[in-house]
Amino acid sequence: MTDELAELDAILHRARVAQAMYEAEGSQDRYDRAAQAVGWAIMEPSRNRELAELAVQTTSLGNVPDKITKNHRKTLGLLRDISNAKTFGVIRDDAEMGITEIARPMGVIGAIVPSTNPAATPANNIINALKCGNAIVVAPSPKGVASCERLLEFIHAEFAKVGENPDLVQMVPAPGSKAKTQRLMEACDKVVATGSQNNVQRAQTCGTPAVAVGAGNVTVIVDETADLDAAAEKIRASKTFDNATSCSSENAVVVLDAVYDAFVAALERAGGAVVDDEVGIVAKLWPDGHLNREVIAQDADKMITALGLQDIVPAGTEYIAVPTSGVGPEHPLSGEKLSRVLALYRASDFEAAVTMTDTIQCHQGAGHSVGLHSTSPNRAMQLATMIPTSRVIVNQAHTFATGGSFTNGMPFSLSMGCGAWGGNAVDDNVHWKHFLQTTKIVREIPDREPALEDIFGAYWQEAGH
Q1: DSSP SS3 for 57
Q2: 1 pLDDT exceeds 80?
Q3: CA–CA distance, 20 with 135 (Å, rounded to integer)
Q4: Closest Cα to residue 140, out of 169, 182, 111?
Q5: What pLDDT shows up at residue 370?
Q6: Residue 50's closest CA among 133, 151, 162, 169?
Q7: Phi, psi (deg, nearest 5) at residue 94
Q8: φ, ψ (nearest 5 deg) of residue 347
């Protein structure tokens, strides 16, 4: 055994000892207090700012103001979601069915987290884990190590105030490695993986139960009934937030012919610029077959300069929309771009728009989410039943809505399951219930066996005996 794996095994051992005591001496109040301590560790304004600044400094992804907003709102929303959740002791007692259900922790959670949200995602996972009686070991991406280390320092400082065991929250020691991450995934009790599809696949094949999430490549439809200025403003706000680091950031918009020109005008009023040069943008966005690091998750001015557009787009342009002629490997703009670049498509009617959206999702992003800007009462249902998606976000800024919002009912999360379409076991926003298991006490109740006629009566009338 290498020294680095021995060090990780020691961390896992301490986590197991801490978790056993946390469970044995646990209470709902204790679990809630530990979760709140983590929440305040990241939300306290000076620490939030320090974490946001450190994240941008060390990853070169996103921007500080939006990371401050993300760290605050995602954590606040999660704490609201779990505030009344019962995760200790008896959580259901159904006398009629004779079942008493008792909450039980998973044990030690192994959380694989990305560099795009190096503080918000681990904090989200840590809060969920502690709320449900678990210990957790976080494996940050190489660029996210510094942010994760600082976050854990803040968490342990809060733990000291409330007398909680710091061994409940640990991380894979730097430098990270595939070997360490693999050992964590194989040795923990539950894996929660967010980030690269390589990490997701490794999580789902490591032999440990895993909740992992698929790739995002959000497509939104703007139909002829939409409020075009409202749609354009929501797309701008969402597309530019944290420099498009979110998996829920719009990557393509499909606009119906009837309103295409009017929507382009609205898009330009809202800070976008149409650049009708698919070949040229592709060449600069993927100069060597890989996404250009001078464009990925950069501020608008840096992105525009890197793409050579400073003399082409108007001053103050916040993102660009590129008319795109096709979908698939020959048209890279149809995939995820992690930048302030939006693929722009047009469709003859709504059915054609749905077909285009389906094609894009099947190319990349199946199961994640799509958006719709429309005032038609029926089109969301059409979209939801015709394409492979777990979420249809209606008339909202997609990035803010998909992972939970104070103005919709989705759970706050930074990890969106994509169902079987995206190769995932879950199609929910990953939330506290994925960190909990239960034991059922089952008692005998009066006989409920039905007669055959109760089950087959209507069938027999139609088909005979």
Answers
A1: helix
A2: no
A3: 9
A4: 111
A5: 98
A6: 151
A7: -105, 95
A8: -135, 145
List the structure tokens of 44: 């306290």
Q: Has 247 been annotated as catalytic?
A: yes
- ∠ CA 357-300-231, nearest 5°, is 40
Q: What is the pTM of this model?
A: 0.95
Strand arrangement, sheet containing 319-323: 272-274, 319-323, 341-347, 250-256, 218-222, 370-373, 392-394
Cβ contact 31:132 at 8 Å: yes
pLDDT digits (tens, 9 = 90+) for 15-34: 999 999 999 999 999 999 99
Dist CA 290 CA 284 (whole Å): 10
Q: How far is CA 163 from the centre of its chain?
A: 32
Q: How far is CA 53 from CA 44, 141, 146, 155, 191, in A?
A: 14, 17, 11, 18, 28
Token match 């209470």: residue?
27
Q: Residue 464 pLDDT > 70, yes or no?
A: yes
What is residue 414's predicted lDDT score, i.e. its pLDDT?
Answer: 93
Q: What is the pLDDT of residues 277-303, one digit of tens each?
A: 999 999 999 998 889 999 999 999 999
The per-residue pLDDT for range 245-278, each reduced to its tens digit, is 999 999 999 999 999 999 999 999 999 999 999 9
The Cα–Cα gap between 144 and 171 comes to 11
> Both tokens of residue 166?
């710091």
Q: Which residue among 148, 188, 206, 247 is the active-site one?
A: 247
Contact 356, 363 (CB under 8 A): no
For residue 2, pLDDT beyond 80:
no
Q: In what order do the strands lie in the sheet with 169-171?
A: 169-171, 135-140, 108-113, 190-193, 210-212
**pLDDT tens figures, 92-127:** 999 999 999 999 999 999 999 999 999 999 999 999
Q: Which two tokens stand for residue 126?
A: 């840590």
CB 135 within 8 A of CB 107: yes
| C-alpha–C-alpha distance, residues 365 and 357, integer Å | 11
Q: How far is CA 358 from the centre of its chain?
A: 21
pLDDT of residue 176: 82
What is the identity of the amino acid at 55? A
Burial 185-216 (b: 16+ CB within 10 A, else e): bebbbbbbbbbeeebbebbbebebebbbbbbb
* DSSP three-state, residue 330: coil
**Is residue 51 a contact partner of residue 119, using CB atoms and an 8 Å limit?**
yes
- pLDDT of 238: 97
Q: How far apart are CA 443 and CA 427, in angstroms?
A: 33
Count CB-CB contacts under 10 A for residue 146.
18
Residue 256 identity: L
| Average pLDDT score over residue span 417-432 | 94
Tokens of 78: 């999660």
